[in-house]
Amino acid sequence: xxxxxxxVFLAAAILVPLSACQLATPExxxxxxxxxxxxxxxxGVAQALKDLKTYRFDADRTMKIAVESEAEAFxxxxxxxxxxxxxxxxxxxxxxxxxxxxxxxxxxxxxxxEMNMYLMEDAVYILAHxxxxxxxxxxxxxxxxxxxxxxxxxxxxxIELLQAAVVSVIGTDTVRGVxxxxxxxxxxxxxxxxxxxEWSQVTSQELPEVEEDSMKEIVEGFSVKQxxxxxxxxxxxxxxxxxxEMTPEAxxxxxxxxxxxMEIAMSLLAYDYNQPVSIELPPEAEDAIEVDADELPx
Length: 298
Prior knowledge:
Layout: H1 2-14, H2 29-33, H3 38-50, E1 54-68, E2 73-87, E3 92-104, E4 110-120, E5 123-130, E6 136-143, H4 148-153, H5 155-163, E7 166-175, E8 178-186, H6 189-202, H7 212-218, E9 219-229, E10 235-246, E11 259-271, E12 289-290
Parallel strand pairs: 6-12
Antiparallel strand pairs: 1-2, 1-11, 2-3, 3-4, 4-5, 5-6, 7-8, 8-9, 9-10, 10-11
Helix pairs in contact: 3-5, 6-7
């Protein structure tokens, strides 16, 4: 059971980013005292979102899983890197993704996959390159599954997280030459639960039921930092770290023994807001094989 549960979370990680920054120095203490309130920053972000038309992003996510039980013990690491361009007005997204899954278990090899994805209004086109299957490359097409835009947009879910959480302004910083407010975001366990459910829906995987009260127990650590541009209030950078400790009882299997630990690190860098972009489907994608959404190599 634990092995299957771990694989589900690895699939979710394949779905849902860095620049060197210098933190504010002690000499900037006077400026820190003059910082806007958290409410003012959140309001500014909400207003900026209304004018959002295009942007680009780079993101990365690393998930480490360790499973221990009477029957087995193994570790797995999934690393995903994705870059993308969004045209919100046209309803189009283009992303390039590389994924590597390393299962530290007897007989398991490193799995790699490269994927180009085009979301064109109401359809999804994917060019999947699978080295582990003889370097097969193929175009696939499907109607856009519910939740795909939210999952691929990257910035909008981060802003929703910001608006529904407790926010603290901790200083200023500079990212790629952009002066930013540095804030900490403290989501509640219910938000974490909703995040897991979104991963489940987009990957067409059914997660074990976990009561919201159990979420408070399994979350060992959760940290979110965001960098918001001073002049435009656009999200420039985000970093998330999360550690979960799951028991069979919390996952709905009270008669089993063992534990599952997950360490998740995600980062996002967003830029080129409202700059001209062109997202056109390659001609060869017109002959893509039509499949159901749950058959796409997410």
